[in-house]
Amino acid sequence: MKKIFYILSVAVIFAAACTKEMTHEQSVRPTTTVAPSEGDMALVTFKVNVPEASLYATPTRAQHQIGEQPNIENGDLFVAVFGGGDDETIGGQLQHYLKAKLAETIEHDYTGPAIDEETGATITKTYTYVYEVLLPLSNDPLVLEFMVGACDKDGNLYTLENPLPVKYEAELMPTLYSRDGYAAYWQRIRVSGVHPKVVNGEYVMTDYEDDQGAMLPDADQDYVAEDIPALDNVQLIRNFAKVTFTANEDAPFTLENFCLVDTPISGSVAPYSTTAGYNTVYTTATGAGAVTAAYEGYVNSQVLSSGVDWDNKKLEPGDFDYMYERTVPSYSTGFAESGAMLEVKWKNIATVDEALRGQTKFYKVVFKGKDGYMPILRNIQYNFELEDIVSEQHYATPAAAYAGPWLGDVSANVATAMLDEIGNGKSNIKVSPMSNTSIGASKSFDIDFYFYPIAGNSEVVVTNGATSAAAGGKTVTISATMMTEGNYEQAIASVGTPVVYQVNNKDDHATVTVTVKPSVTGKVLKGKVRVLGQVAGMTALYRDVIFTVMEKQEFETGSTASSVTKMTADAMGQDVTVTIQLPEALPRDMFPLQIKIEAQNNGIYSVPYTYTDSENVEHEVSALPVKSGPSAFTTGKNSYYFLKTITYDDYATLNGLTYEYTTAFPCKFKTRLAAGSNTTKIRINDLNNEYFNQTELDLEVGS
Asked: Model pTM?
């Protein structure tokens, strides 16, 4: 049975709506007629909103927010001031790193739906924090980076005593870390400048007090800045995502509890793109789609927690847990999954397998939606609604489920289905080939593969057989299982026992022999063999090798040769297009597919041409190579022909969970007919006459 895990995922930006105007009452300020000079500072007031501010900083991990610091209400907010910067590669130069002073907290109405997760009461109040900070007066643009809880790589909080180790903005974001479950907040605002505030022709000054509460003398006062609209509502974003699981009321089970597992242990304070430029960051994106799009190129923590502390971390459906963000894993390198442990109780209904009815079982599921893996990104609330679970394994304990493979794992993901080698950060598996096509009599194929653990693989020794105890006390399982493919009749007749030759590393290999049935007129048969490898205590990895049994194929209707205009019999150089029209869903191992195009009496020659694709991009297509070999028209003679090579990437494109096929491949020619001739024939087939029946096209170029 194929493992399938369906989740309906809804992601929303968590935001607070205010219904009362926010004000900041300032005390009476002194004034002066002395104009500022270069380097003078001005007091800037700005207002900050924090996600879930009213629930902030509870010490218990399962409640509201992770970590006990930093604390916005204690004023742990710093501002890095950069010049506007004309150079997009390095940005502006760092001018100041300053700690802001908390001036006021404004309580106001909250109109969005929210429930206090500890008491269950509806939240009716939230808070805006008013800060003051001294910034350099400037007629030029400045970039302000607001940060709360930013640490260096050793986990030390950046402070006035531990300043930022950068000179330019481009260097900043990769240096901002958060770790050990601490929350952090960040925002980037560009301002047009900082100008002194003038009232009745005089400059307004600060009224700061000294350490004893006495007003500072005029000579020690700083200027007050004009209000800066961009700073009236600074929306800090949190480097945690908020995640919950529930079950659809029509699901065949009820969800009892859940907890997050294998989540990152550190995160970046500020999101950034390593490919698109230092300032390609998202700030006030209003939808999950916009946030996801902004993450192209962003690299986050790949170091994950491990194990499951079920008794201490489990939550009820609808409760929220928090985690550092994770992008969609890269399939070109090994990686480990993040997800959740689920405790479900199967309903006593007819649609549930009789052995499961009324039973409580545990499952380990990867973060996945109907359209593929879900990126878990900061400042977004993820509501995963379970619709169904289909699994070969139903575990009685959380520990057993955690030790098993993920539901929706890397092995089964459609995006990796045709990769011959995958890894999960712990083990690798490689299989060759990934598909086999047979036409005619029954045939046998050898599948070569290797499987080995990345860590400590020298201790694992597998001798001839399916399972062997290793010197290091580990057990390795190698298996090859015949399975069905889709709704097709089974193509496989038998699968042999794997012959394993000390699978210790990628240079060793194993072999399994698969025998397929003969082809049947009018039918396509398919089957697959799952080659699985697992080291005890590690996640299993497998590859599905597809076998197809079919007749020779026909080029689809529409494979044509057509002249653009009529011409006299002795004319030369008439444009001709030969379009190769392939069927859909051809097996992958047919590719690269080489199509032979031959004209009777060498009546055409290939020409280069350009075409414009659907995105209005122009491409140049080279002339087809000319080959010589047995003639398609005269037995025993050689002739010239043209070769069109079509790769699988040319033919099939993965879109979501399905492949879309490009089936028409035009080839451009010009005529080169013998004197007095106005017709020729063109024959097309695959190069070795292996997969297709030959098609003949008639070309008439004269009147």
From this structure: 0.56
